[in-house]
């Protein structure tokens, strides 16, 4: 158990936010910490889940979303996101996990599926020992202000713009 947990943000337009969060989750699990990894609006297959889901004692993984990344929210997405946020809130407040990753939470905020004030309230109420990692593009300034660590992934060049599709084991 951590003595003090902080709030971390991985944001920006560059590649690597989820990858950094996965790396942190592996490090935490390797140190004997209990990790809960929640992915908002992601339902597509990705290779890292093959490994992580085969080690459920190390890292608990939950996901919400359709079979592809959600770009435009519909009413069903709102209901699902609200239900998932409520569930994750309870998990955070119980303090059972040492590290909790909320992957793509900022995307859910940008689609107005989750209220940013509710997230801020939750972050302020988290148990002292719980480390929270928030990922996604466009982290709101009011959440950045209460975070302890903010890393911005900045795209300088990406082969996707040349038509390279996501590659198994590298991007998915």
Write a structural description.
The protein is of the alpha/beta class and 172 residues long. The chain has one domain (7-162): P-loop containing nucleotide triphosphate hydrolases (Rossmann fold), CATH 3.40.50. 35% of the residues lie in helices and 17% in strands. The chain contains 6 helices and 6 strands, in the order E-H-E-H-E-H-E-H-H-E-H-E. The chain has helices at residues 17-30, 47-52, 75-94, 105-110, 116-125, 141-144; strands at residues 7-11, 35-39, 59-63, 99-103, 131-135, 149-152. A 6-stranded parallel beta sheet has the order 3-2-4-5-1-6, covered by helices on one side. Helix 2 links the parallel strand 2 (35-39) and strand 3. The longest helix has 20 residues, at 75-94. The N and C termini lie far apart (31 Å). The relative contact order is 0.26. The mean pLDDT is 87.
CA-based gyration radius: 15 Å
Name the helicity range: 25-40%
CA-based shape: globular
Strand % is: 15-25%
* CATH class wording: Alpha Beta
Low-confidence stretches: none
By secondary-structure content and strand pairing, the structural class works out as alpha/beta
Number of strands: 6
Q: Assembly state here? A: single chain
Order of helices and strands: EHEHEHEHHEHE
- Order of strands in the sheet with the most strands? 3-2-4-5-1-6
Question: How many domains?
Answer: 1
């Amino acid at each position: 158990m951590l003595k003090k947990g902080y709030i971390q943000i991985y944001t920006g337009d560059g590649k690597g936010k989820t990858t950094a969060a996965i790396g942190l989750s592996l490090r935490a699990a390797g140190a004997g910490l209990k990790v809960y990894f929640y992915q908002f609006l992601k339902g597509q297959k990705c290779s890292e889940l093959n490994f992580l889901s085969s080690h459920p004692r190390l890292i608990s993984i939950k996901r919400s979303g359709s079979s592809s990344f959600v770009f435009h929210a519909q009413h069903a997405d709102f209901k699902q996101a609200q239900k998932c946020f409520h569930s994750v809130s309870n998990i955070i407040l119980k303090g059972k996990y040492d590290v909790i990753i909320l992957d793509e939470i900022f995307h859910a905020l940008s689609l107005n599926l989750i209220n940013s004030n509710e997230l801020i309230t939750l972050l302020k109420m988290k148990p002292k020992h719980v480390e929270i990692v928030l990922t996604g593009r466009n982290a709101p300034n009011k959440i950045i202000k209460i975070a302890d660590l903010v890393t911005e992934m900045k795209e300088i060049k990406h082969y996707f713009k040349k038509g390279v599709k996501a590659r198994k084991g590298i991007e998915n």
